[in-house]
Amino acid sequence: MEGTYVIFTDVSSDIEATFVKENDVHFIPMKYMIDSEDKLYTGMYDENVLKDFYSAQKNGAVTKTTQIAPQIYSDIWEPIVKEGNSIIYISLSSGLSSTYQSSVLAANELMEKYPDIKIIPIDSLAGTGGMSLLVELAIENKKNGMTIEDNAAYLNNRKHHICHWFMVEDLMYLKRGGRVSTTTALIGTTLNIKPILKINDEGKLVPIAKKRGIKAALKELLNLYEIASEGGEERIYITHADCIDNAKKLEKAILEKNPKCKITILMLNPVIGSHTGPGMIAILHFGKKI
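Structure tokens predicted for DegV family protein (290 residues):
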């Protein structure tokens, strides 16, 4: 049917399996490695897979990810566009990965081959639950009859209002990614320092504070949420790297601040978790960027 389109994202987002099935959300899979073993994450939320991943990290396994080549996008998208469907693709932030650039190359190639369809990659400037917020909006807009062009324009506007507040438990993972020096990581680990980070306007993960101990770090995350919150019946994701107790503490504290909000708690995907390590926790919501 002319004018139909489907919603894609990649597995750097974290979305409940029931929502995916009920709303026909499509994923671009991504590879990751646990030591020398290749794995493929398809995006269908599976807590057992994620627990095994973080257990391996806690036992000293080295985890890595690989970028998505343009050909992967083409191979997945071509059967869909052949049937006359257009595509909106919500990508991991270009400030964290080259996946968006790869998707643009594949989209342009396919649109030359199939000129009657549109493929619109959206640089989410987000990750994990931040991407999930955009996916939910995309689905809602599509159900309400919004055209692909209007939907994409709306998402490109709203993405600038997504707040990401992260706490990382193990500084050594930030050291491996070049975000802190070896000296800072060693000293911070010794002193029980927990870095607080956000995703900035360029979609990059940047440190904004340091707190000593988990209790102080969780309090800072809550404070940042409260300053930036839009209030009311807002949508919130809490994602965590196998630290459900801390996630529940944040959920309780947020609900005390705003009983009307809707919170989803999910374990962090292995794509982002490979670089943040176990114990990471994040609050993702729409709000005032600070």
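The first strand starts at residue 5 and ends at 10.
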